[in-house]
Amino acid sequence: MKLPTHGVMAVTLMFAGMLSGSPANAHHSFAMFDFNSTVSCPATVKEFRWTNPHVTLLIEASVKAGGPPELWSLELTSPGNLTRLGWTHSAFKAGDRIEIQFNPLRDGKHGGAFKEAKIVATGQVFTSSVRNANDAPSLK
């Protein structure tokens, strides 16, 4: 039985991929965040998205004194990393009042890299870094 040419090519590529042995280290850059600047302010949790590849915390906050509350999207590390360090998918709930710290986006848009949040009602503090394993996320 003879395979069609495209079948032979597909099988060859499949085996070549299996034999390559080097895992892909695909990951996006964090250059979009200004790690030299930290925003600290009170906020209200709108949504906590426990999804891959990065967890996202949506907050409503007034980052400028006297300014109106605005929606901000903060990026965290992966659910797996957070789980290994004690976080759960219910760490934050919509309506939670928090004291937040994050590194803003360089372009001035309403986003950033999560650093730390304290839940006002319980005093529980959550920390995380998107950058590297030396800044591993944790909870206090």
SSE diagram, text form:
Blueprint: H1 5-19, E1 39-49, E2 56-61, E3 70-75, H2 79-84, E4 97-104, E5 111-119, E6 125-127, E7 138-139
Parallel strand pairs: 3-5
Antiparallel strand pairs: 1-2, 1-4, 2-3, 4-5, 5-6, 6-7
Could you give a short description of this structure?
The protein is of the alpha+beta class and 140 residues long. Helices cover 15% and strands 32% of the residues. 21% of the residues are buried.
Write up this protein.
This protein has 140 residues and is of the alpha+beta class. It has a single domain (39-139), classed as Nucleic acid-binding proteins (OB fold (Dihydrolipoamide Acetyltransferase, E2P), Beta Barrel). 15% of the residues lie in helices and 32% in strands. The chain contains two helices and seven strands; from the N terminus they run H-E-E-E-H-E-E-E-E. The chain has helices spanning 5-19, 79-84; strands at residues 39-49, 56-61, 70-75, 97-104, 111-119, 125-127, 138-139. Strands 1-2-3-5-4 form a five-stranded mixed β-barrel. A hairpin with an 8-residue loop joins strand 2 and strand 3. The chain is globular.
Q: Which fold name is given in CATH as the topology?
A: OB fold (Dihydrolipoamide Acetyltransferase, E2P)
What is the CATH first-level class name?
Mainly Beta
Rounded average pLDDT: 81
Radius of gyration: 20 Å
Within CATH, the superfamily carries the name Nucleic acid-binding proteins
Helix content: 10-25%
H/E topology pattern:
HEEEHEEEE
How many distinct folded domains?
Answer: 1
CATH architectural designation: Beta Barrel
Number of helices: 2
Structural class: alpha+beta
Spatial shape: globular
CA distance, first residue to last residue: 64 Å
Low-confidence stretches: 9-27, 133-139
Number of separate strands: 7
What amount of the residues lies in strands?
25-35%
Record the strand order, biggest sheet: 1-2-3-5-4
